[in-house]
Each structure stands twice: as structure tokens, then as C-alpha cells.
Amino acid sequence: AQKITQTQPGMFVQEKEAVTLDCTYDTSDPSYGLFWYKQPSSGEMIFLIYQGSYDQQNATEGRYSLNFQKARKSANLVISASQLGDSAMYFCAMREADNFGNEKLTFGTGTRLTIIP
Amino acid sequence: ETGVTQTPRHLVMGMTNKKSLKCEQHLGHNAMYWYKQSAKKPLELMFVYNFKEQTENNSVPSRFSPECPNSSHLFLHLHTLQPEDSALYLCASSPREVSVGETQYFGPGTRLLVL
Would you state the pLDDT for residue A2? Predict the structure, then answer.
């Protein structure tokens, strides 16, 4: 079963509009971390935002915010006032401990976001 | 200066060739990772090194051989690869392996094509 599910393979959004990228996760571990990364066409994965499972408030970093709904196991990324430079692949990832106590980072399949001028 | 560098950025090789991918991190981190990113598939963790010791081998075929001579450098030696090994290979580092809240810092990747 998939640990991280991103149901939107691609999205087109008008410049300056807000966009929400969906991410749901599956874990039985009470302690975990959720990450969002941006991957431009150049290839590198750029860290955007982090949410800890025990964090009471939703994480925010500039134009990025994470809509964390723990009971629903969702961690959607919200980008406000989108810009042309936001066009990229976006990956949701979860960090949790495996059965041997090792930390694992599991990625979703990604969402390709295209910002339209 | 980019925190994590990878060379080469692009590589084309035949199935009988031997080549190596190099990763270098300038962040003072102690953990380094190799990932494989194939089209339309999630990122797959291949190897983890923590303080130069391999702590994870995610059932990777032996035609991929990692080497970590020190905490700043990580290599992936390739030999007798198959066309399905064509992918983007990403290197990453983090301060240490075990920490839920710490992100990993990624390099730009090596795009590998096996003919």
C-alpha cells in the first residue's frame, strides 16, 4: 500500500492565484514528519516546508503553508499568489521510523504544477 | 556555492561499461543518501551512509556499488547496467540519519541513460 498519495498528476493555475496541492499519508507511527519539496526541470529537489506530527500549528514559510489535518491524514501544500517560477514538480514526503528504528523518507509520485501567465 | 554537488550531470553508457557517479556535500553533514528517480514512480531510496558506515541497502542489485570514503564524498559505481536502470540519480545529505524533523539536502542529480 502506498504510504504517500498525491492524486493530482498535473495542475494548471493562473498566475497570481492560490493553489493547493493534495497529499495524504498512511502511518501507524505517532511520531512522523511531513515534507514538501519542489523539483524544477533542472533536477534538484528543493526543500519547501516541514510539519511535525506533534506540531499544534500549521507550518508556514513565506508563500508556502501546509494545511495539516491529522485526523484525515492529509498535508496539503498551499501556495499563495502563484508565480511563473513556481512551475515545477512538487513532492510530498513522510519521515517515519521503520521496524528496525531507522528513519525512512518516503516520497509520493509528485504533482506537476504549471503556472499560466 | 551549492551545498550538494553531483558529477556528471548527464551520462550515457552501454550495458558493458563501468562508470562512477560522484557526490560531494559542503554542509558538514554526516549522513548521505543515494536515490533513484524513474519516470512516473516515487523516489526510491537506494543506500544510506551514516558517519561513513552503510546503514541501509534497500535491496539494490549488485550492479550498483556505493562507496563512502569520508563524510563529504559519496560514489555510486555502475557496471553491467540494464536499460531499465536509466533514471535520475539523486544524492542527498543531512546532519545525521536519525532525526524526524531534519530535512535532507539534495544535489542536482545525474541523468543516466543506459543503451
Answer: 64
